[in-house]
Design brief:
- The protein has helices at about 5-50, 65-105, 110-155.
- It is an all-alpha fold and about 160 residues long.
- It has one domain.
- The longest helix has about 45 residues, at about 5-50.
- This is DUF2721 domain-containing protein.
- Keywords: Membrane, Transmembrane, Transmembrane helix.
- Pfam families: DUF2721 (PF11026).
Length: about 160
């Protein structure tokens, strides 16, 4: 077994630092996406509740508008669930990268392609999750635009 020196230990820690930053970034995105998903599901439940009232009050919104709102909320929830899946997979890849770097250093393995593969897969998943978040944000803006146009037309 090779002698572990301070400089080799610092080299290992330096190599592990970049994926650790990406782990942190994934964690932050998971937290904010979870909050967005929760708000979207709350909105979906609220609109569904309005649709299922036995006798809606006279000032109730038209059923077609509520159905459109329900459709937007359902699409957003589906996208956000996909984002959460991609972010958790990316998180797993980056944690796997950190673990593999440490393991390979301890065992003197030189299979760097494994580390590169884990990193590329993790980055690809993070990129895909970001693209899904852009789609979801555009959908949220379209939802607000539709609701604003509806309410302005009511006045």
């Amino acid at each position: 077994m090779a002698t572990i020196t301070l400089s080799s230990t610092l080299g290992i820690l330096t190599a592990m630092f970049t994926p650790a930053v990406l782990v942190s970034a994934c964690g932050s995105l998971i937290l904010t996406t979870s909050q967005r998903l929760s708000r979207s599901l709350d909105r979906q439940r609220e609109v569904a509740g309005l649709l299922h009232q036995p006798s809606p009050p006279p000032e109730a919104l038209p059923k077609a508008h509520l159905l459109a709102q329900l459709h937007f909320a359902a699409r957003r929830a589906q996208l956000l669930q996909q984002v959460m899946t991609m972010l958790h997979l990316a998180l797993g890849m980056f944690v796997g990268t950190v673990f593999t770097i440490g393991l390979f250093e301890l065992t003197n393995s030189s299979a760097a392609w494994v580390i590169a593969l884990l990193s590329v897969v993790g980055a690809s998943l993070l990129l895909y999750a970001s693209l899904l978040l852009i789609r979801e944000s555009r959908l949220a803006v379209a939802d607000v635009r539709e609701e604003t146009q509806f309410l302005l037309g009511q006045g």
